[in-house]
């Protein structure tokens, strides 16, 4: 079976970190006989420079045809002056909506070798391995009506609409239950059902789904408590599922528990587990082109891609084990460097992962 992966290096450190991830993908493709073909396209600032738009038609049609997409990062100061609708970030948002990537999966894993980088005490986070499933294409970020309007008394008011249909809740719920089933079997649904009707419906649908997943243990938590519990005792969680805005906030919060923006991958999936995979960090213009960036978040994004979109869990595990090994060897890019460890470049880190594989 041949599978097609579209590679979108993007801007800033994107091309450097994606180059290392591609080497890793090629290596497991050979070793596990995965039959993966790769293709490349432009998105973001590099697409603006070449074609005048952040998401060219050619990129979009390749993305639609691909089984999975690996993205580096987009954006940078060069394009900051452009009006909102023409910015590099629009390329990313366009891909998410055109491909209907409604489910965002963000693992927060603390590698024991990096325990001292966490914002929490080592005993609270050692062994931390949680997954946040965030709804990405609905909720208050997209709800209509929205805007700023003038009232009769001459004062203005700003307004947004927090809306989820049953089917939107059900599909993100299923994605989360499926993920929980593959992991520790526990799912915590986060809402504000004591205040917001939309989340009363959310909770109802989650309970309905629970009947279909007797092997998954479902619990509910209000978002304020969930934020507190995340920084108090994060290891109580296995999988968390929540709406767009709550997920935005909670997933950044969970990322900090692992202390290392350069280590965290993410996936954005559609109904058929087709997905776009990218590191959670941005294009880091401050270190671009210097062979300094940590490629591990992108390499771990390849592992997620193999697991969720390409049905190659064994290859995913091999990559994750190789990343563990290079950390064991004491190799660190600048962002995760500590006393007594060996500082390496982007390329050297890629070399080490390949050798470990
Ligand atoms: P975005 O708006 O795209 O999320 P951002 O402004 O939030 O971008 P990042 O690009 O993620 O910021 O960079 C934040 C900081 O983290 C910068 O100092 C950057 O150099 C650093 N950083 C980000 N990614 C990496 C990486 N892979 N390796 C090393 N440092 C990184
Ligand atoms: Mg950011």
TrEMBL record:
GO CC annotations, alphabetized: cytosol
One Gene Ontology molecular-function label: NAD binding
Pathway, per record: Amino-acid biosynthesis; L-leucine biosynthesis; L-leucine from 3-methyl-2-oxobutanoate: step 3/4
UniProt entry keywords in alphabetical sequence: Amino-acid biosynthesis, Branched-chain amino acid biosynthesis, Cytoplasm, Leucine biosynthesis, Magnesium, Manganese, Metal-binding, NAD, Oxidoreductase
Enzyme class: oxidoreductase
Cofactor: binding details: Binds 1 Mg(2+) or Mn(2+) ion per subunit.
Binding residues for substrate: 96, 106, 134, 224
Positions annotated to bind NAD(+): 76-89, 282-294
Claim: Lipid biosynthesis is one of the keywords in the record: no
Compartments reported by the entry: Cytoplasm
Binding site for Mg(2+): 224, 248, 252
Requisite cofactors: Mn(2+); Mg(2+)
One of the protein's GO biological processes: L-leucine biosynthetic process
Site (Important for catalysis): 141, 192
Pfam families: Iso_dh (PF00180)
Enzymatic reactions: (2R,3S)-3-isopropylmalate + NAD(+) = 4-methyl-2-oxopentanoate + CO2 + NADH
UniProt EC number: 1.1.1.85
All copies of domain Isopropylmalate dehydrogenase-like, residue ranges: 4-353
Function: Catalyzes the oxidation of 3-carboxy-2-hydroxy-4-methylpentanoate (3-isopropylmalate) to 3-carboxy-4-methyl-2-oxopentanoate. The product decarboxylates to 4-methyl-2 oxopentanoate.
Quaternary organization: Homodimer.
Family: Belongs to the isocitrate and isopropylmalate dehydrogenases family. LeuB type 1 subfamily.
Name used for this protein in its record: 3-isopropylmalate dehydrogenase
């Amino acid at each position: 079976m041949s599978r097609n992966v579209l590679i979108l290096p993007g801007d800033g450190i994107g091309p450097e970190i994606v180059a290392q991830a591609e080497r890793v993908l090629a290596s497991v493709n050979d070793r596990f006989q995965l039959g993966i073909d790769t293709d490349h396209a432009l998105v973001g600032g590099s697409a603006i420079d070449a074609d005048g738009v952040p998401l060219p038609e050619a990129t979009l049609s390749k993305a639609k045809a691909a089984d999975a997409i690996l993205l580096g990062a987009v954006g940078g100061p060069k394009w900051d002056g452009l009006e909102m609708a023409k910015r590099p970030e629009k390329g990313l948002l366009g891909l998410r909506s055109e491909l209907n990537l409604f489910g965002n999966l963000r693992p927060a894993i603390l590698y024991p070798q990096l325990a001292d980088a966490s914002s929490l005490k080592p005993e609270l986070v050692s062994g931390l391995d949680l997954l946040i499933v965030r709804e990405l294409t609905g909720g208050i970020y997209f709800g209509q009506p929205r805007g700023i309007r003038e009232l009769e008394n001459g004062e203005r008011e700003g307004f947004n609409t927090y809306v989820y249909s049953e089917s939107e809740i059900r599909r993100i719920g299923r994605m989360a239950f499926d993920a929980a089933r593959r992991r520790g079997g526990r799912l915590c649904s986060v809402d504000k059902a004591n205040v917001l009707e939309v989340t009363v419906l959310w909770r109802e649908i989650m309970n309905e789904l629970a009947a279909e997943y007797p092997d998954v243990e479902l619990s509910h938590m209000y978002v304020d408590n969930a934020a507190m519990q995340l920084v108090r005792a994060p290891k109580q969680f296995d999988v968390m599922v929540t709406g767009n805005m709550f997920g935005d906030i909670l997933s950044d919060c969970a990322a900090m528990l692992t202390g290392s923006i350069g280590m965290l991958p993410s996936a954005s999936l559609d109904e058929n587990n087709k997905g776009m995979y990218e590191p959670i960090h941005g294009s880091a213009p401050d270190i671009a082109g210097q062979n300094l960036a940590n490629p591990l978040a992108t390499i771990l994004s390849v592992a997620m891609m193999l697991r969720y979109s390409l049905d190659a869990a064994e290859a995913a595990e091999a990559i994750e084990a190789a990343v563990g090994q290079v950390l064991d060897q004491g190799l660190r890019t600048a962002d995760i460097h500590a006393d007594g460890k060996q500082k390496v470049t982007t390329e050297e880190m890629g070399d080490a992962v390949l050798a470990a594989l």
